[in-house]
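Hypothesis: this fold can be encoded by more than one sequence.
Test: take the structure tokens below, design a sequence, compare later.
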């Protein structure tokens, strides 16, 4: 069992594994201000829906520390601005707004207290979000393990591992649990262009654990599915609508179409903090578009002709009818999702 410490908050510093550098080098990126956390999220030092939510929560702690010398009104005003900045650091993963909203509630509920006490309450809430996320993922792992047969061949996309969360992971949490239980599994990991989270991060995490893995170029997946080489597909999520439509890393939708065609079970694995109870369907999800350079360059080397037009959406939406089930910390949600997802609404805090 290898513990990957995606982040650690100590002495008012947020230490992050620099995910831009893995697997070539293992480096720690330090954030001492909320602006540095904002940068870390935008530049994908830290990425993955639950991980950016947790990092943002610690960003609020750093902001509170930065503004402690201001008078109370100024302290609260500046905290509010910091929350807005962190909220906007990335648009698609709802865990970010869910976490900042939890921090907002703590600030609003304790406005009458001295600044130092507000800071302490904020710190306690951020630690809670961190610890809850790890515990949640372990539960998800145990729930998901129930649908993994022995000798299963599992396909996954992007990185929904310890690195994408406070720890343990969602889709990779299920894979970890199955492996710890002694199941003889084999994982196919899509490399996940353009940023290669599968090739760089998932392959690294699984290798650290000694879990049998084959890394594949994204365009291999359909052939494996057609040839009955995949028993189950497990992917993470960045935002799930009430009807089950799910935004996840670009390419997830394509996999779901092939899985449906060949009748291979396709599961979303995510905590309830990834469910957006304010949206009815995936049509309402804002899809982040990222810079051209992610497509035109690899490791700083140009691989596309100068001047070529680029379209680079970071996520797509998998329609609910392509999803077999959604594995959450409370169990496995099955269709009809619009009825069954709502049962979990009271389990989490509203984001708006
Ligand atoms: O752009 P990224 O790397 O932040 O995207 C991450 C994903 O799409 C993951 O699959 C998703 O956040 C699930 S993480 C548990």
């Amino acid at each position: 069992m290898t513990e990957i410490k995606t982040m650690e908050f100590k002495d008012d510093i947020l230490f992050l594994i620099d995910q831009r550098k893995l697997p070539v080098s293992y480096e720690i990126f330090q954030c001492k201000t909320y602006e540095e956390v904002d940068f870390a999220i935008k530049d994908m030092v830290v990425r993955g829906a639950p991980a950016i939510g947790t990092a943002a929560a610690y960003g609020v702690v750093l902001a509170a520390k930065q503004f402690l010398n201001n008078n109370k009104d100024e302290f609260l005003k500046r905290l509010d601005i910091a929350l807005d900045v962190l909220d906007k650091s990335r648009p698609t993963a709802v865990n970010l707004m869910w976490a900042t909203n939890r921090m907002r509630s703590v600030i609003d509920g304790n406005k009458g207290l001295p600044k130092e006490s507000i800071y302490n309450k904020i710190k306690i809430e951020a630690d809670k979000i961190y610890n809850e996320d790890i515990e949640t993922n372990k539960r998800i792992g145990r729930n998901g393990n129930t649908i993994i047969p022995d000798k299963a061949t599992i396909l996954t996309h992007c990185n929904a591992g310890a690195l994408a969360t406070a720890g343990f992971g969602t889709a990779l949490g299920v894979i970890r649990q199955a492996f710890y239980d002694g199941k003889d599994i084999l994982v196919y990991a899509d490399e996940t262009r353009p940023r290669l989270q599968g090739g760089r991060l998932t392959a690294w995490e699984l290798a650290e654990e000694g879990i049998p893995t084959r890394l594949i170029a994204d365009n291999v997946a359909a052939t494996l599915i057609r040839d009955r080489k995949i028993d189950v597909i497990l992917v993470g999520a960045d935002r799930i609508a009430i009807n089950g439509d799910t935004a996840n890393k670009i390419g997830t939708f394509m996999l779901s179409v092939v899985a449906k065609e060949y009748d291979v079970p396709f599961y979303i694995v995510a905590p309830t903090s990834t469910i957006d109870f304010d949206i009815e369907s995936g049509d309402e999800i804002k899809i982040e578009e990222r810079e051209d350079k992610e497509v035109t360059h690899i490791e700083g080397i140009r691989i596309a002709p100068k001047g070529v037009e680029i379209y680079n959406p970071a996520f797509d939406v998998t329609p609910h009818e392509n999803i077999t089930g959604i594995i959450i910390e409370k169990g496995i949600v099955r269709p009809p999702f619009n009825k069954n997802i709502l049962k979990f609404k009271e389990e989490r805090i509203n984001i708006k």
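Residues 47-50, 93, 158, 160, 164-165, 170, 197, 236-238, 248-249, 314 surround MRU (CB under 6 Å). The chain has two domains: 7-137, 140-346.
Hypothesis status: open.
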